[in-house]
Specification:
The protein has a four-stranded antiparallel beta sheet with strand order 1-2-4-3. The two termini are about 20 Å apart. The protein is an alpha+beta fold. Helices cover about 40% and strands about 30% of the residues. The longest helix is centred in the last third of the chain and has 22 residues.
Length: about 80
């Protein structure tokens, strides 16, 4: 999985769940506490699936890098 580059909206770094694959978005969504997904306006559009980049980055490092190592161990 390639790590996403954040969007900067109103000096906040965010990612959209829609930038992820369906499986990844569902994994992240199920891990997030209630109220973590926000709506933001950007260039006249309403983005309904925004998550703080710091939260996404932590999730990415913790779950996807570790799971990748776990899959490598099982391949032996």
């Amino acid at each position: 999985m390639t790590r996403l580059i954040p969007l900067i909206i109103k000096e906040q770094k965010i990612i959209q769940l829609s930038q992820l694959t369906i499986d990844q978005a569902n994994d992240l969504r199920s891990w997030l506490p209630d109220g973590s997904i926000r709506k933001m306006e950007f260039q006249g559009m309403e983005l309904n699936d925004c998550v703080a980049f710091e939260t996404y980055s932590y999730w990415y490092r913790t779950f996807h890098i570790l799971s990748r190592n776990h899959e490598t161990i099982l391949d032996f």
